[in-house]
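Hypothesis: this fold can be encoded by more than one sequence.
Test: take the structure tokens below, design a sequence, compare later.
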């Protein structure tokens, strides 16, 4: 028994040393990281800009013989799902080491005007608002399908990152901290990562005067001494070993949500989880496959024709307002665009209400009403909400591979396992949160059951999309 526990301790110590060493390695290789970032910038710019100036791919185009199809596969099939999965594994290492936008924003900030950050930039609603607007706009202009749309949205975001970097802060990533449309999602997913930069405050405060005068440039403006959450940290490693108080450390994947989020969860996070990731994202992934969308559109078209109003069925817009690719027989009319927005809004409202009511019920059955408990329980839904976005994006991967003739019969059961795994993880988190708050077992069970009932609604929506439609 003693031999067993001492060998477990030595394995744990080895792992801790290895991780702390990895953090120090990053800290000591910032020049190499810069070079890697410039490599990613060049690759990103090539895949984003060149296809936008090529003719649209024909029916003989494949991933391996057409740059546009290859870029589409890399961006939406590998890059984005891969980045989201990396958040679950390594926290925001992507942001600190590889992200081209972050690198360009910081580069501009090193040479920019260094102005103070205005209050409007610091508005805490930006991650939610920017995510919703980008997601909906992306659907309006078919960002997954067309390179010009991808250039407009991803390139627009990059220009914004450079501009904000040029204007505000010195050697900082103001864009990434406050305005990036996906920083909220990355921040949520990184809470589940099994590693983070841990801060030993006692060691920090006890550090000798010489060390106290040293500075570390934390580009995303994290208040390092009081850092508890992995959300804002870009895992760049620059502060690793600082004042002998900071080290890359392993942690339990549920630790932050169960313990730290008890006091740090807030309403903008809840909105992003419930309305953004569960509601808007599901509506956006679902509308183009939905028979309800077709019924709604046909019903509206018949009604308009009966009223003698033909113009909504004929009016089209430039591609940067609403999809308009006549050569591909892919044009959204004013009516299509309106129904698209109505469909996403209705789906969002329905799913958000179902999930919010179940959370509210869970709060109520486990004690007196507390908004803080509502927001804390909402954080328990991060695996389910984030898992849904990964599932939705990976649909693009599999669609492209299937179009290129790959046999993907294994995908359907894998999806089911993934969906059920994400759902179970969320329920386990909700249970752990309630137990951590000393809610009795019976009431915790009722609370978990209420949230399970609420999550069945979006789960069924995924089942409709992947298995029934
Ligand atoms: S706290 Fe800041 S400096 Fe330290 S690893 Fe995170 S992003 Fe880098």
């Amino acid at each position: 028994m003693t031999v067993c526990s001492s060998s477990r301790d030595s394995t744990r110590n080895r792992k801790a040393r290895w991780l702390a060493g990895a953090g120090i390695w990053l800290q000591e290789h910032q020049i190499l990281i810069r070079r890697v970032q410039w490599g990613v910038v060049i690759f990103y710019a090539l895949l984003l800009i060149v296809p936008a100036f090529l003719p649209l791919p024909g029916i003989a185009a494949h991933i391996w013989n057409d740059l546009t199809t290859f870029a589409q596969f890399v961006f939406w099939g590998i890059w984005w799902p891969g980045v989201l999965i990396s958040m679950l594994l390594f926290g925001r290492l992507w942001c600190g080491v590889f992200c081209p936008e972050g690198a360009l924003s910081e580069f501009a900030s090193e040479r920019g005007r260094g102005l103070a950050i205005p209050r409007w930039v610091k508005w805490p609603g930006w991650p939610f608002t920017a995510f919703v607007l980008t997601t909906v706009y992306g659907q309006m202009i078919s960002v997954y399908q067309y390179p010009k749309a991808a250039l407009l949205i991803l390139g627009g975001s990059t220009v914004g990152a450079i501009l904000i970097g040029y204007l505000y802060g010195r050697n900082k990533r103001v864009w990434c901290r406050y305005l990036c449309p996906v920083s909220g999602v990355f921040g949520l997913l990184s809470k589940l990562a099994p590693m983070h930069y841990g801060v030993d405050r006692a060691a920090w405060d006890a550090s000798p005067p010489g060390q106290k005068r040293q500075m570390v440039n934390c580009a995303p403006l994290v208040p390092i001494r009081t850092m508890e959450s992995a959300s804002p940290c870009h895992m760049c490693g620059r502060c690793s070993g600082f004042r002998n108080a900071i080290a890359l450390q392993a942690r339990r994947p549920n630790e932050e949500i169960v313990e730290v989020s008890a006091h740090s969860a807030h309403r903008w996070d809840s909105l992003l989880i419930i309305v953004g990731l569960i509601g808007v994202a599901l509506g956006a992934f679902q509308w183009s496959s939905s028979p309800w969308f077709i019924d709604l559109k046909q019903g509206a078209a018949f009604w308009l024709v009966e009223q003698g109003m033909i113009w909504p069925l004929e009016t089209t817009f430039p591609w940067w307002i609403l999809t308009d690719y006549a050569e591909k027989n892919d044009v959204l009319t004013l009516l299509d665009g309106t129904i698209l927005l109505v469909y996403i809004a209705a789906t969002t409202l329905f799913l958000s209400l179902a999930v919010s009511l179940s959370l509210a019920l869970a709060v109520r059955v486990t004690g007196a009403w507390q908004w803080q408990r509502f927001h804390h329980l909402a954080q328990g839904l991060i695996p389910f909400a984030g898992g849904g976005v990964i599932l939705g994006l990976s649909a693009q991967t599999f669609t492209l591979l299937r179009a290129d003739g790959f046999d993907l019969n294994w995908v359907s059961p894998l999806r089911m396992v993934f969906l059920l795994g994400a759902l179970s993880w969320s329920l386990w988190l909700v249970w752990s949160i309630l137990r951590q708050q000393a809610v009795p077992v019976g009431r915790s069970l009722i609370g978990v059951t209420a949230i399970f009932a609420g999550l069945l609604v979006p789960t069924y929506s995924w089942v409709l999309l992947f298995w029934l439609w």
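Residues 266-468 form one domain. The first helix runs from residue 2 to 28.
Hypothesis status: open.
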